Amino acid sequence: SQKLEEKLVCSICLELFRVPVTLPCGHNFCKRCISDHWDKQKQVPAGTDASYTCPECRRGFERCPELEKNVTLHSVVELARDSDERGSAAGRCEVAPAELCRQHGRPLELYCEDERRCICCICTVRDCQRHRRVLFEEERAKKQTFLKESLEKSQEESERIEQAMKELELQTESIKDCSELKDGIQSKFTHLKKALEDFQCQTVARIEQEQRAALEHVDKNWNLCKDRLDVLGQHMERAQSLLACPDHKTFLQEFPLLPPLESPEVLVPVEFDVAAVIKPISEILTSISRLLLEDLPACVAPEAPNPAGQAPSMSLLPADHRNLTFDPETANKYLELSKGARKAKHSPGTVPGKGQGPRFEPWQVLCTQSYGPGHHYWEVKISSHSVILGVTYRGLPREQQQRHSFNIGLDGGSWGLQVREDCYLAWHKGHAQKIQEQLYKNLGVSLDYGKGLLSFYGLGEKTKLIHSFHSVFTEPLYPVFWLCEGRVVTLCQR
Q1: What is the spatial distance between Cα 268 and Cα 252, in angstroms, rounded to a whole number?
Q2: Do you know which PROSITE patterns this protein is assigned to (predicted)?
Q3: E strand intervals along 8-132
Q4: What radius of gyration do the chain's Cα atoms show?
Q5: What is the C-alpha separation between 84 and 390, in angstroms, rounded?
Q6: Closest CA to 132 of 120, 114, 117
Q7: Tens place of pLDDT per residue across the chain (494 aa)
Q8: Model-level pTM?
Q9: Cα 304 to Cα 292: distance, rounded to the nearest angstrom
Q10: Which of 154, 402, 463, 469 is the most exposed place for a label (fewest CB within 10 A)?
Q11: Cα distances (angstroms) measured from residue 153 to each of 82, 143, 164, 266
Q12: Helix (H, G, I), strand (E, B) or coil at 290
């Protein structure tokens, strides 16, 4: 019925034919509509083609065609109009507002695929004449197919999600059920903590015991010295009194009564080397410190910054900063020190010594300052690579070591960071640890004596930790440097 109504609509007024007439070309129009159309054509100015034309095919007629009512078409239109009026009347009683076209008030009969909406017969002629239009049943069939496929996919995805949720529930239970593991870890940490506290007490007790024994030995020697001094005093007093006697006979009679001096009791040397006493313990503590402060934090929180590896707080550095000066008495003969001893340069020729102290045979120099308990920080500027900076006990050998041009970090009493062209080497006890990091010409050294922590930092736009040593320091530490030919090291001052 929809397609039939489309054929019964006048293309001029877009309504059902009213007194339909047929032109010689075969097209149909309302009699009044085509008459009005031709009347307008008669009003066209002279000189233009004023022939009568068909609005559909533009075919022209020299004379106005006779307009006879198409009786058959008129009857069909009347039947369609009656059917439409009955449908409208029924619609007013039975069709819900949602089933009527909002624009024309006609029943919705087709679906426009282009505009994706239901349309009425007037929409079909006026708005959607060139659009793709289908019956409701056809469009529903396509939509149902799509929905069925979507439903199947949704069902499959729902099943997968439900399965994943079940697995997550199992994982949740498994994760929550780790109390035994947690208790075991807590027990281990508690045991380690207690063991460390016990060994701390034992180590301190041993040091105190060695200290008491040494003090008792010193006190014993002191008492021996005091007793001997008393004896010597009495002897000297009797001898002086006898020497002052003027009578020869009395002198000779009293001389045998003067007690002879006995040989003094030999003092046993006091041996108290606390560093030797705790050396094995220090080595173990160094390994434990490295495990606890470096390896363990990296396992517990890989992305969290290591407190031992953080850059020193710049707000605290001024108070902890130390201004260093080189010690001329230790400088190698090729190292030229500036006035003020704040810059060292490896010269091509020897530099006359100014001091009487033993100078290094390697290209090394100590600083005058030494540091003990507390936190200390200093900065240096190097001209290029092939430099070593570190700290050492005072007893660092001055002699040249075999197979090495330096001796920083070759024993247990010195620690050094060697700056190479492509990497860094951290030296201690003759072992070198390679560190792959960019070359910095400004370096900072942080020494926390009490914590046994020595750290080296690269100073640039951001402060970068290069390496940290963990140890137990037992003596004052001196900053020490080694310079290759042509290199310059400057001690930064504040």
Answers
A1: 39
A2: B302_SPRY, ZF_BBOX, ZF_RING_1, ZF_RING_2, ZINC_FINGER_C2H2_2
A3: 20-22, 28-30, 52-53, 60-61, 110-112, 117-119
A4: 56
A5: 105
A6: 114
A7: 566 677 788 888 888 888 999 998 889 999 999 898 888 887 766 555 557 889 888 888 888 888 888 888 888 888 877 766 655 555 444 555 667 888 888 888 889 988 889 988 888 877 887 888 888 888 889 889 999 999 999 999 999 999 999 999 988 888 777 777 777 788 888 888 898 899 889 888 888 888 888 899 899 899 989 988 988 888 898 899 889 999 888 889 888 888 887 788 788 888 777 777 777 887 788 778 778 877 777 677 665 444 444 454 444 456 789 999 999 999 999 999 999 999 999 998 888 765 566 889 999 999 999 999 999 999 999 999 999 999 999 999 999 888 889 999 999 999 999 999 999 999 999 999 999 999 999 999 999 998 899 999 999 888 999 999 998 898 999 999 999 999 999 999 98
A8: 0.51
A9: 15
A10: 402
A11: 49, 15, 16, 103
A12: helix
Q: Distance (Å, rounded) from C-alpha 304 to C-alpha 170?
A: 30
**What is the Cα–Cα distance from 371 to 324, expressed in whole angstroms?**
11
Identity at 75, one-letter amino acid code: S
Place of tokens 């002191």: 222
Task: Name the 3-class secondary structure at 9.
Answer: strand
- What type of residue sits at position 223? N
Q: Can you tell me the distance from the alpha carbon of 212 to that of 273, in angstroms, rounded to the nearest whole number? A: 13
